[in-house]
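[agent] plan:
  1. take the single chain provided in the ticket
  2. run structure prediction with default settings
  3. attach structure tokens to the ticket
  4. add a short note for the reviewer (M.T.)
[agent] executing step 1
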Amino acid sequence: MKKVLFPVAILALCASFLAFTLPVEEEKATIEWHTWEEAIAKNKENPKKIFIDIYTDWCGWCKVMDKKTFTDKKVIEYMNENFYAVKFDAEQKETIEFDGHEFAYINSGRRGVHELAYSLLDGRLGYPSVVYLDEENKRISVSPGYKEAKGMINELQFVAEEHYKTTSFEKFVASLEGGEEKVDKKQ
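[agent] step 2 finished; step 3 output follows
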């Protein structure tokens, strides 16, 4: 009897494990981040706008955006579909060649800055900052500061759909919120 009960008990135990096994979690979607060089090369092959997240390792709000904004499903989908996304450390040490110029790290005391970050931000070094480039690698805009997912989606749409060519960002956002009639028509 013991010889029969032991295999039955093992079989029942295995069945109970299988019955209560949690479903395998699907792999989470993420933004497809590129290096500067990768984004520029991909843009030559298949032109798209470029999104540049300029950050530093010590920036607290940069880390919050990484955890909250850049993990939002809508942000991920819209970003991957419409942009080449670049994470650019404003304090990176590697030299970058771009557009006939060499951009290097400049050491200045405790912290330095990479010349490309300085150039993209017109010397206004605040982190996080986002820079948008068009398909010809020309700057569209600079957007400093932390953004929640909804604000980021608004910006991404404003740039990707080229609303910046015909209206201000404020008017664009007002139109999304149904508040277009509140905007002064004289502007």
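[agent] step 4 note for reviewer: The domain at 24-148 is CATH 3.40.30.10 (Glutaredoxin).
[agent] ticket updated
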